[in-house]
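User: Could you check the structure of this?
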Amino acid sequence: MSRRVYQARQIKRHRATRAEMAERREALYAIVAEQQPMTVRQVFYQATVRGVIEKTEAGYTKVQTLLEEMRRDGEMPYAWLADNTRWMRKPQTYSGPQQALLRTAEFYRKSLWDETDTYVEIWLEKDALAGVVIDVTREYDVPLMVSRGYASLSFLHSAAENMESEDRPCFIYHFGDFDPSGVNAAEKINETLQELAPDAEINFERVAVTPEQIEYLELPSRPTKTTDSRSKSWGGGDESVELDAIEPDTLRKLVRECIERHLPPDELDRLREVEEAERESMVEFVKGWKTAAE
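Assistant: Sure, the predicted structure tokens are below.
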């Protein structure tokens, strides 16, 4: 057991005083302010590492409750906590063609990968963490694929069809838990993609969580679930580590490093300059068209 985990387990179990609650809220605020956006579970893990809360389900509930109170009280911006598990669908509508064209110009993005000889995807086991890394994948124009553990056959078939159509090497970087199901789910994704897209060159890498990361990042662990049918053949030991245990900034850095392996230096900056010039041209075109129509 690591020293940090031991210290977290030694936190006294008693009803917190008003002063202690204030200190706890202050500590949670500091954690989120430093690395937002974060998920509630990520905040919980960082709080246990720093000895703010005990590493138990009761401790998680306390963090969850405090973060809710802090947002409702206006102490913490709602946007600092990510939740991609809930969403809505609504068609985009416009008041007229000019507005539609101006909105298109505003959100215009030039494809970063059209002239490269590789295709890259980031795969994430947990949809709750999508909000933590999507700013990085969006910046680099890379698909973020959320598998939610064992991906459905329909989802995998669609992904495989897309890889076959690319006609260039595909690099898939997977981020998931270090536990029997998490590791096996990644293996199954790779196996099924290779099966469904036999003509595609698929290079699959499970980036996180790894035993090496657990050691050098001193990641907090949890007991491996004995109810998991794969635990009997699991070679990772009695302790498992969730992807949420990796600090958000570190997780974003890992995603960025995977993507940048395949881009020439300064390519993103060069593309953004071209993109801005083309966006300005689109706006000028719409203004000219609007003037002519009037």
